[in-house]
Amino acid sequence: MGPRRTSGRKASRLGTLERRYEFHLGEAIRAALEGSHDKAATHSSTALLISRELYAAGPDPALHQPELAAALCNHARYGSTPLEVVGLLMESAGHYTVLAKADPAAYEVPRIDVLTRIALTADEAGNTADAISLLREVVTMYQAAPAADPAALGIGLARARFHLGRCLLKTGAPTDGLAELDAGLDLAADALAELRIPLHAPCWLGAAPRYLQLAAPDWAAAAVRAMTLHAAACRWDSAAAAASAAVLISGGLAGLGGEQLRTAHEAVRARADAVCARADSARRIAGLVLPGPGLGLGLDEPLPRALDLRLGGRTVGPARALDRLTGL
To answer: Are 239 and 230 in contact (CB under 8 A)?
Structure first.
């Protein structure tokens, strides 16, 4: 067999591996959002194995280093112990560090994203103070990071602030925690606007970039927390704004996912409707608006067909955030 044919066969095999990698990673993310833990873990493991093969077998390992870094970060959610999770994340961060040195605009944000995941692992292990410290550093890193995709940076920074706010609330700092949640919601809304996604299209979240899909459960949870806290303090305009975000994002997730996500979305919608009704009443009492048709906040109108939910599964991974939305 001549060298040209050998080279052609090798290129064909690499192309097949690349397509298989994209398929399995995409299916792992979709299954996780739908709540199918075993399916997600299986696809994620396969994507990681393929990415390692691509990294080792390619003519230039650096060409497939991004795939390996992404697969490691994604598969960390299925680690059986905190040590295993951190090991996978540290390996991912190492690859992203190399990539970011060569192309900071493309890879600095994904590198920082991994640090956010490490902070969450610390919090889950009971080291919330360490998580807060790292998340504060992460926020500063995002604010100084170059980015080829400003929306990815905005979503990454918003997600870090969502978790920083959640951790601060856990430690008894409600004012600072809520401030972080509100800042994250503003950042996420700006990033979503920049992406120009048609939000009234069926299954709009399914057409969004992966980084937005992965951040959506944390976004929905943060919106519900902010809505609940503002409502408790009778800050009805702020509560209504957070309610709108909660309905939009939890509905987008439910459009992809299963019965538990649908149930969570319906609970969020019911709470949001009540908050917006109170906000509307407060405005009328204050004389800021006149009663009449079309003067509500939009949540009494039918949701887009994208929010009609049809899929099934049990909640796992990032979708656990939505499963806890009604028990903050």
So the answer is: yes
Please choose, from the candidates 162, 260, 178, 251, the residue with its C-alpha nearest in 3D space to the C-alpha of residue 215.
162
Q: In this structure, what token pair is assigned to residue 289? A: 């608006």
**Rounded CA separation 17/21 (Å):** 6
190 φ/ψ angles, rounded to the nearest 5 degrees: -65, -40
Residue type, 218: D
How far apart CA 60 and CA 40 sit, in angstroms, is 29
Give the closest residue to 221 by CA, choosing from 116, 91, 88, 320: 320
Q: Note whether 224 and 328 are within 8 A (CB).
A: yes
Q: Give the CA radius of gyration of the chain.
A: 21
pLDDT of the chain, 328 residues: tens digit per residue: 455 555 566 667 788 889 999 999 989 988 888 778 899 999 999 999 999 999 988 778 788 999 999 999 999 999 888 899 999 999 999 999 999 999 999 999 999 999 999 999 999 999 999 999 999 999 999 999 999 999 999 999 999 999 999 999 999 999 999 999 999 999 999 999 999 998 987 689 988 999 999 999 999 999 999 999 999 999 999 999 999 999 999 999 988 867 778 888 899 999 999 999 998 888 888 765 544 444 333 333 333 332 232 222 333 344 454 445 434 4
Structural domain spans, the chain: 208-328
Task: List CB contacts of 260: < 8 A, sequence separation 6 or more.
Answer: 35, 313, 314, 315, 319, 322, 323
pTM for this one?
A: 0.83
Interatomic CA distance for residues 149 and 2, integer angstroms = 43
